[in-house]
Amino acid sequence: MPTVYIALGSNLGNRLAYLHQGIDCLKSGILKNVVASLVLETPALVLPNSPADWDRPYLNALVRGATDLDPDALLAHLKAIEQQLGRNPNHERWSPRTLDLDIVLYDKECIQNQQLSIPHPGLYNRWFLAHLMALMNPDGKDPKTQVSFAEQATQILRPKVPFIRSFVLEPRCVGIVNVTPDSFSDGGLWFAPDAAVARCNQLMQEGATLIDIGAQSTRPNGDQITFAEEWKRLKPVLDRLDFDVVPVSIDTYQAPVMKQLVEHYPIAWINTFPHLLSDETLRIIAHQGCSVCIMHALSVPVKRNECLRNLHPTLIDWSTQQVERLIHLGFSTDKIILDFGIGFGKSAYQTRELLQKYGEWAAKTGCPTLLGHSRKSYINAFSPQEASQRDAETVAISLALRHSINYIRVHNVALHQRTLVAQQWLAGGYAY
Which of 64, 97, 199, 390 is catalytic? Predict the structure, then answer.
């Protein structure tokens, strides 16, 4: 099969989500053996006197894969994906767009006609595209110039601002925002609605895929609040958010809160403890098309020194039973995210075993996986840091498990992105 490189770009709405959706579409019957580059945020390319709102930074990425489609058929599929993801086929040139998909290389072919220009002209005048190609395939040769991509990238004039920020596509970062006065590491910081909204927007800018908002602390021996109080904390934050830019998960286990949420807001996920919920409540969530992130816990809130007796069989049985239940209630497996519940009824010794086996155990269910390990108390088994100072340890574990999980739920998104970018730069890409 021919090897192709496809460029992805977005500067409208939830840009990172559009890149993810574009790659998901490419993986569904168009490309095989997909590898993705880093994501570079670059200033918009606009003409002089363009409307001011066209000046929106782009997120750019490059993917490599094998295809059995010929160039014209591949182009037709790319245009169909663009339209499927909201791009207007009659858009003005240089105007903002949800997703741009361009064939950069098609094997070693040179094609020039009304529809196609391969290699893509951007390889010779857009530094970021030449740079991404050189990162993915430094020794490969451009079929037109017969110069290596690494050498070619060094010959292109590097702009004064080559890129603003860099991100990885996988694993996906879920940013934590607690609108509580008493959460274990950030209680009170985002309790005011305006502070919480600003934090949500900041985490999205720093590379989060989703924001998980919690209004009820589940720390050990934490005070439990009423439905009315939890709703009072959530509603002013949700009323201020732009859901087109900030996809939201709500961390809650109160059924009345969930019913209000899915009725009044376009919530992406409910993050919860399924054993506390009735079938009726879960059916309502499934009917709304909302995903559910299920966490294992022995008790809510956490009881100190309470631990599982048989870690492996208990978690495997729990995950199997809960996934079967949720499928029966209307959820598809891609709408069920599995979280084995770090810190909820597991000792530090059990947590290490769980982390070592996380990917292996979760893979048995066929569902996406989430790791909720950020700043938690197991870190005190090897580090004396206070909760708010445990980001370095959290990142180290995220790096170790990056190929075993789909989502990492973390307080410090920026540090995770910086670290994961460095690792992926060294690896040359992310293989799906």
Answer: 97
Q: Which of 135, 108, 106, 142 is nearest to 38 (CA)?
A: 135
The encoded tokens of residue 10 equal 């977005």
State the average pLDDT over residues 401-407. 94
As beta bridge partners, residue 9 has 60, 100
CA quadruple 128, 132, 133, 134: dihedral positive or negative?
positive
CA distances from 346 to 302, 304, 322, 334 (A): 10, 10, 19, 27
Tens digits of per-residue pLDDT, 269-301? 999 999 999 999 999 999 999 999 999 998 777
Model confidence at 221: pLDDT above 70: no
Please name the helix (run of DSSP H) or strand (run of DSSP E) that holds residue 421, with its range, or none: helix 413-427
Written as one string, the DSSP assignment of 197-209 is: HHHHHHHHHTTEE
Dihedral sign for Cα 92, 95, 98, 99, please.
Answer: positive
Catalytic residue among 64, 102, 126, 251: 102
Helix/strand/coil (H/E/C) assignment for every residue in 28-79: CCCCEEEEECCEEEECCCCCCCCCHHHCCCEEEEEEEEECCCCHHHHHHHHH
Distance of CA 279 to the CA centre of its chain: 29
Q: Is 97 a catalytic residue?
A: yes
Examine the residue annotation and report whether 107 is marked as an active-site residue of this protein. no
CATH of 3-167, one of 3.30.70.560, 3.30.70.20, 3.20.20.70, 3.40.50.300: 3.30.70.560
- The pLDDT value recorded for residue 184 is 65
Which entry of 56, 100, 219, 325 is annotated as an active-site residue? Answer: 100
pLDDT at 302 over 80: no
Handedness of CA 409, 411, 416, 417 (dihedral sign): positive
Catalytic residue among 15, 24, 55, 87: 87
pTM: 0.93
Contact 249, 271 (CB under 8 A): yes
Tokens of 130: 């030449």
Count of CB atoms within 10 A of residue 341's CB? 21
Tell me where in the chain the CATH 3.20.20.20 domain(s) lie: 172-418
Active site residue 251: no
105 closest CA partner among 79, 80, 124, 127: 124
For this structure, is 100 an active site residue?
Answer: yes
Q: Which fold has domain 172-418?
A: TIM Barrel (3.20.20)
